[in-house]
Fold this sequence. Notes:
There is one protein chain. This protein has a single domain (about 1-65), classed as Alpha-Beta Plaits, CATH 3.30.70.240. Helix 1 packs antiparallel against helix 2. It starts with a strand and ends in a 22-residue tail after the last strand. The radius of gyration is 13 Å and the shape is globular. About 30% of the residues lie in helices and about 25% in strands. By secondary structure, the protein is of the alpha+beta class. The protein has a four-stranded antiparallel β-sheet with strand order 2-3-1-4, covered by helices on one side.
Amino acid sequence: MYVIAVYDVAAERTTKMLKLCRKYLHWVQNSVFEGEITEVKLKELKLEAEKIMDKEHDSFILFKNRNSNWLDKEIIGKEKSNVDQFL
């Protein structure tokens, strides 16, 4: 499945979430990641994210789709990390 992940966490947890998301997905922009991921790996990502987060203040949003072919992506300005080679 194709996933776009976005997080908003307190500054003291940002580095941990960044490292976690980079283990599973490709970095696109500050706090934004995307890529193909299996159901099992997605479950791992969510469980690990929950351990880092303070659910009262932080958020982790996942946009899921069958694959990247169902997504039209338009970039305006500088692309921080080109993931086309991975997709």
